[in-house]
Amino acid sequence: MSIGRRPSPLLGLVAALAVLIAGIASAFARDSSTTTTTGPPLVPSTQPSLVTTSSAPRTTLGTVAATTVPATTTTVRPAVPTPEAAANGLWAAYTSANRSAANKFASKEVADALFSQPYSGEPGAFQGCRKQQQGVYDCGYTQPTTHYTMTAQADANSSYKIVALTIA
Question: pTM value?
Answer without folding.
Answer: 0.56
